[in-house]
Amino acid sequence: MDALEGLAKLARRAREEQTPVFGVADAVRLRIRSAAPQPITLIPLGVFGGMSAVAASIFVILAVELWNYMVSPVMELVAPLPEIPLW
Amino acid sequence: MENADWLDVTASLNGEEEAYARLVRRYEQPITGLLWRFTRDPAQCEELVQQVFVEAYFSLKTYRGDAPLLHWLRRIATRTGYRFWRARAKEPVEAALPEDFLEQVEAVDDDEIDPAEAAAVLHALLARLPDDDRLVLTLMYFEDVGTKDIAERMGWSRAKVKTQALRARRKIREIAERERLLEKLGWTR
To answer: Which residue among B115, B125, B143 places its CB closest to the CB of A13?
Structure first.
């Protein structure tokens, strides 16, 4: 008998093997529960969003105020020079 | 797809845990049988079975239902088993043939060989092959799976599987001859 024939015969016997029974349904359920992403709680997200909005508003107000005080160097070049009495 | 499977898959996707538990119970045994070919350690095998069903749950929305659910689960299980071997390859384990068994069966008719012992011998022999060769022969010998099915399960080309099978058979023949396996089994007549 060829070695491969022998292995095929061994395999036929091996296929009749009884395999163990584990009963994994409950363990799988637990693992799925622990691995599933937790629902995002909206309260901390809302607080964070609100604080961000307040900070952004303050920043915009300050930026507009600052803008009004800024003088463009380009505008200064073209603006008519104030008449300054030389003597 | 069977109607019961379809109903349970849909219910599982809607978050009904009991529906998925029913699917697990329905297909646990064939998946255990397949993974038992990858490891004969009950604890490791149980761990792999759990991994398969957890992975299947999170991939359930990708299941299109064009093939039976068991085929889809077997594909996940085969890849899980293969990954398990690849991870263990980093820590090589010398698989020894169970000598006691070989001595026991020397004079025994081949039909009287205990299937579990036959599986243990075959498992130990195949463990001496590289992972890809081992996978192809494991599925062919233990599960009676054809090259087309192996290619589909692993996402390999059929040509690769055929080449792999040819090469693997040559290697396993060499190993069996070196081990004088047939002589030990009393199958030399």
So the answer is: B115
Name the CATH architecture for the domain at B1-93.
Orthogonal Bundle (1.10)
Domain(s) of CATH 1.10.10.10: residues in chain B? 96-189
- Model pLDDT for residues B143-178, shown as the tens digit of each residue: 999 999 999 999 999 999 999 999 999 999 888 888
CATH of domain B96-189: 1.10.10.10
Express each pLDDT in A30-59 by its tens digit: 999 998 776 666 677 888 999 999 999 999
Would an 8 Å CB–CB cutoff place A16 in contact with chain B?
Answer: yes
**What one-character DSSP code corresponds to residue B79?**
H
Can you read off the two tokens belonging to residue B117? 């012992």
Nearest residue to B33 (alpha-carbon basis) of A23, A13, A15, A10 = A15
Which residues, numbered 100 to 139 in chain B, qualify as contacts with chain A under a Cβ-Cβ cut-off of 8 Å? 110-111, 113, 115-116, 118-119, 121-122, 125
